[in-house]
Amino acid sequence: MKEAKAITKNVRVSPKKARPVADAIRGKPVDDALRTVRFSKKKAARYIRDTLESAIANAQNNHDMAVDNLKIKEAAIDEGQTLKRMKPRAQGRADLMRRRQSHIKIILVEEE
Question: How many domains is the chain partitioned into structurally?
Answer without folding.
Answer: 1
